[in-house]
From TrEMBL, chain A:
SUPFAM superfamilies: Porins. Its main location: membrane. One of its GO terms (cellular component) is cell outer membrane. InterPro entries: Beta-barrel_TonB_sf, TonB-dep_OMP_SusC/RagA. It comes from Arachidicoccus ginsenosidivorans. This is SusC/RagA family TonB-linked outer membrane protein.
Length: 769, 460
């Protein structure tokens, strides 16, 4: 309330052009109509505190339980493996939970010494009750509703109904989200079978088939207790997607010592896959009772119940692979392979690509001359070059016409329209990813320290990209084979056994991994360059694949009315000063500073990809106890959530929404020394200020992903019975703490209102029979 | 295991593998990889059934073509909203970029004012391509239905081009199908104004020559001769070609349109299905029409505490207002104030009497520009099925009055008759004895009172 009053007063000062900051009007000018606070001081004193914030009301402590059972067995001819799993999670937000069931059966049978057949079936099903999250304004879902909720109102009325906030009556009451139904059921059957025949010793022919079938159905009902339901007297809907993937692989594998110390593994394989899916939806409104929910859609009384369906184009791929791996003395390996891949979405005559690869490895520590270096017990060098193809799965090379644009005529009847929905590209073909990599694996001091280091440089040529046509063309853009990008990086992983006691009573080991990569443009196609903004760097290491462009800011303007920088005339005090970097000439090319702020002043602020990722694990064991601590983190930058979520004229004043309140006051005529931007929106410069470097902040973090303490019952305790061979109990605290300067809910998520990452504690019992 | 048997098996393996690899890796020996989409209409486009669907798709630009209530609808990019927010007619309570609309604080980086150029130039090129497709189906030019489609497309092309020309000045109208479908066509500099005006005029004239006076029944909402002539009249007035404007206006009077009895029936359920004799062209809406074909005006305009006396639930974001200084220009007895509210209903008392809130006394920045009636279907509180009128006969009458005044240097009896028909319906006294300037002023005011909240309420 105090925040809203202060903001309203600042707006009043600006709108009445009061000196010294907003104009030349004297605040004591008798012609002025005086400022009226939104809340009087008596209203503020009498405000009821309902003792519970809306955010507390929609969240709860939750639990997860999981039960696993597995068994295996068989005889000389036949073996089996079967398992069942149940997982149940109650969500931290009211109305959300998730249950999953899995069953699995593997059978292998030897018909003869040469012929073997087998089959696997995996069946899984899950049911999730969802709440609504992640939209904007009134469609922002339960978390937004809770953030917007004015804390001076009761969340539920005495009669059990859910009142609507008079300040922003378009969003449902946050508690009322618990009364809606939104259930997603997923089912999947993955079955596969194989047969293999050892034709002669070392030569195996194999055929494999698999079929993967999955469905996902969301059934929803918005009841009359929920604002969006009450507006239409109940709304029920069912949406279902189904997907299939068929795979067929024939292979011939030769794996044998061809002479002493010479080993050959050669494979020829043929692979054919096809996949697709479809979609069906139905919805109705205006039900006589909330009881029927989505069970009988026909009972609704809407003028036009809605139906929809679609079927995806089937994606077909085919490959032939030939690969040979030659090993000498067990420690020198040379591999060569070639693939011929075909994919249906590419243009006629452009569907096939050849992708070769070679690599070699040398375990140098196995060589006799190396044995003298006692400290190093394992050392391997690896290097390789390989090409692979990336298929286009989101579009195709062909003209497509669809009925996306249909007008209404008569008294409201839809009339089907046809329009071009995809432009043809008769040259569209494979994107090729060509990578070189080199690495070492090592172990020193009797494997007390082991690790690996890899360096790679991957170049993607003929990159598949949807590129825009020039403004005014009959369709927005087309898939093309754009230029080249390159990704270079390294990965380091180390494991150290810091402490190993003789009788295994006490041990401590540490694992560390660290990686870095940079993905940037090497070349771009002419068509891409045509529509690329002039301020963007087209190629080179300063042209990251995921660039973040914005404006350079040079502090806060704190001067009085009329003293704004020459290139930002009339800017509001307390606003970010943007640096004038460039302008446009008549042909749209960049010039030097032009004395005004425009899109030409964009600069590269950074890279949306993280700079470094790392993980650090420590494991301690003592007798039956074990303790695992795993930390992970990233060095990165991100947009500050404070820009959108702070006290702001367009949000708090317009709709009475709550805001994140920082530790310090933003600039206002009461706080003229503040270095935090004003809460007023500067019509002339807000669009530039909102993407100023000021808001592109360090979001690096270190998070304790998992802290697990376990205890295995000593063998002698179990020796008295024959049921259990091993029992272990453990407790796992996930996401226990995060160290970061990032002011948002979570540095791993975008600034927004998505389902939060939860801190969870898992208690487990593991029995082996 | 001896070496000999190893060598034997190696031989067999090598031969088998080599044969297999050679056959499989060679092009040709592989399964069919033809791309098979489901429901692609490519083969339908060049048929007569496809022709009507191409024409239908061309209409979607009138409703913003997928934009959030753009075109002749009620959202940020709509002509209606932009005209209102950039003049004294309206203000928006949401601040932010809406304040820039009011202060005309435009820069080349302000998407709200540049967006429509990007949006509608493709429509013009698509229509050009469609016209060539339909002409190919109608080689002898005798198929009357295909001729009508050609007329509709020409009318739409002229309408889109006219809006862009009024907004952005002369620009290249692509009229060659091959050029329009070539993404590498060289950039053409802005043409002279005369070239653009002549192209729009030609399209409107040819459309008017083919199309029926009005569309009814299932075809209500299509571009008619009356719509083409209304567009043409606006073009002539924009070019100050007053004599031609008068001639077109007089032609429009003969097409069977008239003012409906109550002003508000242009904007409520009574404007639907062609029953209203005043509506020349409209965007036909439906509560299931999505962002383009549902009417969001009330959601944009009603204050959050508004409660319709009918009990129909209405989404109310409280954005659009008419500032009091403009509202105060209305004659208090003007019947059109029924849909422009100083006092609005916020509920009922225990006895069922409606409680009104006085927006002016409460310090609101303007009157509630309700304009549209609630949709009695109650299908959706935000998405209303009330149509958006684009051209109305009242607009034609006021344009004709203005054109006569300009062409002749003074109003004549026909000009008075035009403006007074509009005033009479609003319950106002007829005008008389005015000179050129005072008549012009009267037209200007009358256009505000009659046509606010519809792009072009001001003088052209």
């Amino acid at each position: 309330m105090l925040q809203r009053n202060a903001l309203a007063e600042e707006i009043w000062l600006r709108d009445n052009k009061i000196a010294p900051y907003y104009g030349q009007t004297d605040i004591k000018d008798p012609a002025l109509s005086q400022f009226k606070p939104i809340y009087s001081s008596s209203e503020i004193e009498q405000a009821v505190d309902y003792g519970q914030s809306a955010m507390d009301a929609i969240t709860r402590n939750a639990f997860t339980e999981q039960h696993n059972l597995s068994m295996s067995g068989g005889n000389l001819k036949t073996t089996y493996f079967a398992s069942a799993n149940y997982f149940n999670q109650r969500g931290v937000i009211i109305g959300s939970d998730y249950k999953r069931y899995n069953g699995r059966l593997n059978l292998d049978h030897n018909i003869s010494n040469q012929i073997k057949v087998g089959a696997n079936v995996l069946v899984s099903g899950s049911t999730a009750n969802n709440t609504l999250t992640g939209g904007s304004n009134e469609n922002g879902g339960i978390i937004t509703a809770a953030i917007y909720w004015a804390p001076i109102l009761p969340l539920q009325a005495a009669d059990g109904s859910y009142p609507i906030s008079p300040y922003y009556p378009n969003i449902p009451n946050p508690l009322s989200y618990s009364t809606l139904t939104n259930t997603t059921g997923n089912n999947r059957i993955l079955s596969s079978a194989y047969g293999q025949w050892e034709v002669v010793a070392g030569l195996t022919a194999k055929a494999q088939f698999s079929y993967d079938w999955s469905t996902s159905r969301t059934s929803a009902y918005l009841p009359t207790t929920f604002l969006f339901g009450s507006q239409v007297n109940g709304e029920a809907s069912i949406d279902e997607t189904r997907a299939y993937q068929k795979t067929m692989i024939y292979s011939l594998n030769y794996n044998r010592d061809i002479a002493p110390r010479h080993h050959l593994n050669a494979v020829v394989a043929y692979d054919y896959e096809s996949g697709g899916g479809d979609y069906l939806s139905a919805a109705n409104q205006n039900f006589i009772s909330d009881i029927v929910k989505y069970y009988n859609l026909a009972m609704g009384q809407a003028d036009k119940p809605s139906v929809g369906s679609s079927k995806q184009a089937e994606l077909v791929s085919s490959s032939v692979v030939a690969r040979a791996i030659y090993t000498y003395k067990g420690n020198i390996t040379v591999q060569a392979s070639i693939r011929r891949d075909g994919f249906s979405t590419f243009a006629e005559g452009k569907k096939w690509g050849y992708f070769p690869g070679v690599s070699a490895g040398w375990v140098i520590s196995n060589e006799n001359f190396f044995k003298s270096i006692a400290a190093v017990n394992y050392l391997k060098f690896r290097a390789g070059y390989g090409e692979t193809g990336n298929p286009l799965t989101l579009g195709s090379a062909f003209n497509l016409y669809g009925s996306a644009q249909s007008p209404y005529f008569g008294d409201g009847q839809v009339n089907t329209g046809i329009s071009l929905t995809q432009a043809a590209n008769p040259n569209l073909s494979w994107e090729t990813r060509a990578g070189i990599n080199a690495g070492i694996d090592f172990g020193v001091w009797g494997n007390r320290i082991t690790g690996s280091f890899d360096y790679y440089s991957t170049t993607n040529r003929n990159l598949l990209k949807y590129v825009a046509y020039p403004v005014g063309f009959i369709i927005n853009g087309v898939y093309i084979n754009d230029g080249k990008t390159r990704s270079t990086g390294y990965e380091l992983s180390l494991e150290s056994k810091n402490l190993v006691s003789k009788n295994n009573e006490l041990s401590w080991s540490t694992t560390l991994n660290f990686s870095h990569y940079l993905n940037y443009w090497l070349e771009r196609a002419d068509m891409d360059l045509k529509t690329l903004p002039k301020y963007e760097i087209a190629t080179g290491k300063n042209a990251p694949y995921k660039p973040v462009y914005g404006y350079q800011s040079s502090g806060i303007f704190k001067g009085t009315f009329g003293t704004a920088p020459a290139w930002m005339p009339g800017m509001l005090p307390g606003g970010l000063i943007i640096v004038d970097k460039a302008g446009y000439d008549e042909k749209g090319n960049l010039t030097g500073p032009d004395g005004s702020i425009s899109a030409a002043d964009h600069i590269l602020l950074g890279n949306a990809d993280p700079k470094y990722s790392f993980g650090l694990g420590n494991k301690f064991t003592f007798k039956g106890f074990d303790l695992n601590i795993f930390l992970s983190g990233m060095v990165q930058h991100n947009w500050s959530p404070l820009n959108g979520a702070r006290v702001l004229e367009t949000q708090m004043n317009a709709h009475g929404w709550n805001a994140m309140v920082g530790a310090a006051e933003p600039w206002s005529s009461q706080h003229t020394e503040s270095n935090i931007p004003t809460t007023l929106v500067d019509g002339s410069y807000a669009q530039y200020q909102n993407s100023a470097g000021y808001w592109w902040i360090n979001s690096s973090y270190l998070r304790c992903k998992s802290l697990m303490l376990g205890y295995s019952l000593p063998a002698k305790l179990l020796s008295g019975q024959k049921v259990f061979s091993n029992i272990r109990v453990s407790i796992d605290a996930q996401n226990l703490f995060t160290i970061t300067d990032y002011p948002g809910l979570d540095p791993e998520l975008n600034a927004g209102n998505y389902y939060p990452l939860v801190k969870s504690y898992v208690f487990a019992v593991n029995c082996t029979f | 295991m001896n070496i000999l048997s190893n060598k034997q098996s190696l031989g067999i393996a090598a031969i088998a593998a080599a044969c297999l690899a050679a056959t499989l890796l060679a092009p040709g020996c592989t399964k069919d990889l033809t791309f098979k989409p489901y429901g692609d209409l490519s083969s339908v486009v060049n048929t007569k059934q496809g022709a009507v669907a191409l024409v239908n798709a061309a209409y979607t630009g009138l409703a913003g073509g997928g934009d959030y209530n753009g075109g002749w609808d009620a959202g940020t990019y709509s002509y209606r909203t932009q005209a209102m927010m950039t003049t004294d007619e309206g203000i928006c309570a949401w601040g932010g970029d809406w304040a820039n609309m009011q202060s005309l604080n435009f820069t080349p980086d302000f998407d709200w004012v540049t967006h429509n150029f990007t949006k509608y130039t493709p429509y013009i090129s698509i229509i050009t391509v469609d016209l060539a497709k339909i002409a190919a189906l109608n080689v002898d030019g005798k198929d009357s239905l295909l001729n009508r489609y050609i007329g509709e497309l020409q009318g739409l092309r002229a309408e889109y081009a006219e809006q862009l020309y009024f907004y952005y000045g002369p620009f290249t109208i692509k009229t060659d199908a091959e050029d329009a479908s070539n993404p590498d066509a060289p950039y053409e500099p802005r043409p002279d104004k005369q070239v653009v005006v002549a192209q729009i005029e030609k399209d409107f004239q040819q459309a008017a020559a083919i199309l029926p006076n009005r569309f009814t029944g299932q075809d209500y909402g299509r571009f008619s001769k009356a719509a083409a002539l209304t567009g043409l009249m606006k073009l002539y007035m924009h070019e100050k070609d007053w004599a031609k404007a008068v001639a077109v206006g007089q032609q429009l009077k003969t097409l069977g349109y008239s003012l409906c009895e109550n002003y508000e029936d242009n904007f409520n359920i009574n404007n639907k299905g062609g029953a209203n004799p005043e509506v020349i062209l409209s965007v036909v809406c439906s509560p299931t029409g999505g962002d383009s074909y549902a009417n969001y005006w009330l959601a944009m305009s009603l204050p959050p505490d508004y409660q319709d006396p009918s009990g129909i639930p209405l989404t109310a974001w409280g954005g659009y207002k008419m500032p009091w200084k403009t509202y105060d220009k209305f004659n208090p007895s003007d019947k059109r104030l029924k849909v422009l509210l100083e006092k609005y209903p916020i509920g009922k008392d225990a006895n069922g009497n409606i409680i009104y809130k006085d927006a002016k006394a409460a310090g609101d920045p303007g009157a509630v520009p309700m304009k549209f009636g609630p949709d009695p279907s109650r299908a959706n509180s935000q998405n209303s099925g009330i149509d958006f009128p684009i051209f109305r006969y009242a607009d034609v009458l006021l344009m004709l009055a203005e054109s006569i005044n300009e062409a002749q240097g003074a109003p004549n009896s026909e000009a008075y008759d035009c403006i007074n028909q509009v005033r009479e319906r609003a319950g106002l006294t007829p005008l008389k004895n005015l000179n050129h300037d005072s008549f012009l002023k009267a037209i200007q005011n009358e256009r505000l009172f009659e046509l606010w909240g519809k792009a072009g309420a001001g003088m052209i």
